């Protein structure tokens, strides 16, 4: 049993280290096709536009969350984070916007 689990564990660890080491080259966004953002619907104070994706190539309309509101869960490898940001005076902790400590 151990002979089977050990190679699988090593393979998973190497995948995690490789995925965490993504580096955006200078021309990473050259061939990226982005969806257009409706700037009339995405405006402050409820929303903000920022670069998103793994290299920040495309604009994303982020929703701004207040105290006690959902802000997402810890980022999983290969899964994009939800388009939600906490207000600047808050931090996302355990999926909820809370006062900075």
TrEMBL record:
InterPro entries: Ser_Fungal_Prot_Inhib_sf. It comes from Henosepilachna vigintioctopunctata. This is Uncharacterized protein. Keywords: Signal. Residues 1-21 form the signal peptide.
